[in-house]
C-alpha cells in the first residue's frame, strides 16, 4: 500500500530526517550507525544529486533552496495568516510511504532472503518512475497548473515497526520524501502542485504491488491475494502473522474504541500512541525476530527453502499478449459499468490488479494504446486544463448518450 502524508514543515521534515529516516534503529542494514537514503527524480539528476542523501542537501531542499549553493529557489509565503500561524509559510514536502505486505517483510528480514528486499526496492522505483509523470507546477494567479514530470525525492528503506510492549516487529517499508519543488518548461523553479499525486495513490499502489508480485514469482515464491489486492507470500499461518502485526492491531483497536474511521484518524492515533524506538543494534534486532520465529516453527526459513526448490516457467509471448488484452478489456468493462467517463490511471490500476503480477506495466500500456487505436477507448477532453493524463469513454457509452438525447428530443412537447 502507498500512503501520502499531509504537507510537512521544514522543521518537521528535518527532524524526521535525523530522528526517523536516517536512524539506525529502523533497519538491519546500516553503515556507521546511519541509514543511507537515496535520491530519485529527473530534477534531482538535473541539479546534480545522485547516490546517498546528505543532511546539507536535504535541509536546503526542505527550505526550498538549491541543494548545492543554498540559493532560495522557492519563496516562502509571508502573509498575516502565515505570521499568525494559521497557514504554513512553506510546505517543505510530503512523505509517500510504500508498505510491503507482512509476509514479504518476514521473508526478507527473518528469512534473510535479500532477493525479496531487492524486489521491494525494484517495485518502489517502478512506481516512482510512473507517478513522477504526474508532477505539476503551481504557476500562480488564474493560470492552470503545468505538468512538468520532474521532482526531487529522497528514499529511505526501513524494515522494523514501532515497538508494541517492547517488541519491534519486522516491517519492510520505504519513506519517499517528495520535496516541494519542480521546474517549469522555461527552467524556472516552481512549487509543486500535489493534487494529481494524491489522486493516483491507488494506481501507485497497483504498480508497486504488480511489480513486487512479478519479482517474487520470478524467484519461486507462491502468491495468494491479501488485503487490498496485496501479493502475500504463501506458507505463513494466521497465528504467526497476527503475532507480528501488533502495531496494526493496536491502532485498529484504538480507532474502534474511539468510534473513528478513515486514514487521517489512523495517522493521528499513530502519532499519539507510540512507544519510543529501542536502541538496538542490527544484530540484536535479528536475534529478537529469530527467537520469535522459533516460537512459531521457523516459518520464514521453511518458506525461503521451498521457494528455492521451485522451477519458474516463463509465459509464452502469445499468452502474454492474451493476458494483457484480457486485463485491459476487464478494466474498460468494469469502469464503464460505473461511469460514462473514467481516467487513464483507473484503467492502468484495474488492469494491473487483474494480471496478478503476470503481466507488467509496459505490456498494459502497449495494449491500451492498441485498443485506443482500434477505437475501443475514446479520448475525452479533460475538465481540468493541462491535466497530466487522458480521460476516456467507450463507443457503447457514446451510443447510450446519443440514444438518451434522442429520446428527450423526441419527447419534447408530448
Quick tags:
three-stranded antiparallel beta sheet; globular; alpha+beta
Quick synopsis:
The chain is of the alpha+beta class. The chain has 17 helices and 15 strands.
How would you portray this structure in words?
By secondary structure, the chain is an alpha+beta fold. The protein is built from 17 helices and 15 strands. The protein has helices at 10-21, 42-46, 55-62, 80-84, 102-109, 114-131, 195-199, 201-218, 238-243, 246-258, 263-272, 282-294, 299-307, 317-338, 344-355, 361-373, 395-410; strands at residues 2-4, 38-40, 93-99, 136-137, 146-147, 153-160, 170-179, 182-183, 189-190, 192-193, 223-225, 231-233, 342-343, 378-380, 391-393. Strands 1-3-7-6-2 form a 5-stranded antiparallel beta sheet, with helices on both faces. A hairpin with an 8-residue loop joins strand 4 (136-137) and strand 5. Helix 5 crosses helix 6 (114-131) and helix 14 (317-338) crosses helix 16. The chain is globular, with a radius of gyration of 24 Å.
Proportion in β-strands: 5-15%
Could you report the average pLDDT, rounded to the nearest whole number? 87
Question: What is the tally of helical segments?
Answer: 17
- Biggest sheet strand line-up: 1-3-7-6-2
Largest sheet features: 5 strands, antiparallel
Number of strands: 15
Q: Would you tell me the structural class of the helices and strands?
A: alpha+beta
- Computed over alpha carbons, the radius of gyration is 24 Å
The coarse silhouette is globular
Q: In terms of per-residue confidence, which ranges show pLDDT below 50 for 5 or more consecutive residues?
A: none
Distance between the termini: 55 Å
Helical fraction equals 40-55%
Amino acid at each position: 500500500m502507498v500512503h501520502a502524508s499531509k504537507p510537512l514543515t521544514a522543521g518537521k521534515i528535518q527532524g524526521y530526517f535525523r530522528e526517523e529516516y536516517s536512524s539506525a534503529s529502523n533497519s538491519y542494514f546500516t553503515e556507521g550507525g546511519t541509514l543511507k537514503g537515496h535520491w530519485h527524480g529527473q530534477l534531482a539528476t538535473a541539479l546534480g544529486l545522485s547516490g546517498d542523501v546528505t543532511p546539507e542537501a536535504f535541509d536546503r531542499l526542505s527550505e526550498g533552496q538549491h541543494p548545492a549553493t543554498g540559493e532560495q529557489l522557492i519563496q516562502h509565503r509571508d502573509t498575516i495568516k502565515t505570521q499568525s500561524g494559521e497557514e504554513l509559510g512553506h510546505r517543505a514536502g510530503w512523505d509517500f510511504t510504500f508498505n510491503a505486505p507482512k509476509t514479504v517483510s518476514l521473508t526478507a528480514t527473518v528469512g534473510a532472503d535479500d532477493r525479496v528486499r531487492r524486489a521491494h526496492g525494484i517495485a518502489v522505483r517502478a512506481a516512482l518512475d510512473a507517478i513522477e509523470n504526474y508532477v505539476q507546477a503551481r504557476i500562480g494567479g488564474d493560470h492552470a497548473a503545468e505538468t512538468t514530470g520532474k521532482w526531487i525525492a529522497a528514499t529511505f528503506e526501513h524494515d522494523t515497526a514501532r515497538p508494541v510492549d517492547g517488541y519491534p516487529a519486522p516491517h519492510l517499508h520505504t519513506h519517499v520524501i517528495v520535496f516541494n519543488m519542480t521546474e517549469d518548461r522555461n527552467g524556472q523553479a516552481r512549487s509543486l502542485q500535489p493534487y494529481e499525486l494524491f489522486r493516483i495513490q491507488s494506481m501507485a499502489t497497483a504498480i508497486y504491488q504488480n511489480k513486487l508480485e512479478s519479482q517474487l514469482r520470478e524467484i519461486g515464491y507462491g502468491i495468494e491475494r491479501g488485503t487490498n489486492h496485496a501479493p502475500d507470500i504463501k506458507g505463513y499461518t494466521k497465528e504467526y502473522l497476527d503475532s507480528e502485526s501488533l502495531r496494526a492491531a493496536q491502532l485498529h483497536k484504538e480507532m474502534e474504541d474511539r468510534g473513528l474511521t478513515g486514514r487521517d484518524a489512523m495517522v493521528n492515533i499513530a502519532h499519539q500512541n507510540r512507544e519510543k524506538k529501542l536502541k538496538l543494534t542490527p544484530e540484536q534486532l535479528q536475534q529478537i525476530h529469530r527467537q520469535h520465529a522459533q516460537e512459531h516453527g521457523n516459518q520464514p526459513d521453511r518458506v525461503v527453502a521451498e521457494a528455492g526448490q521451485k522451477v519458474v516457467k516463463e509465459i509464452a509471448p502469445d499468452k502474454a499478449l492474451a493476458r494483457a488484452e484480457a486485463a485491459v478489456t476487464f478494466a474498460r468493462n468494469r469502469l464503464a459499468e460505473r461511469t460514462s467517463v473514467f481516467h487513464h490511471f483507473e484503467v492502468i490500476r484495474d488492469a494491473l490488479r487483474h494480471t496478478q503480477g503476470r503481466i507488467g506495466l509496459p505490456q498494459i500500456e502497449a495494449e491500451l494504446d492498441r485498443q485506443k487505436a482500434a477505437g475501443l477507448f475514446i479520448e475525452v477532453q479533460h475538465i481540468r486544463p493541462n491535466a497530466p493524463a487522458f480521460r476516456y469513454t467507450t463507443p457503447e457509452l457514446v451510443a447510450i448518450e446519443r440514444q438518451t438525447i434522442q429520446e428527450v428530443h423526441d419527447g419534447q412537447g408530448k
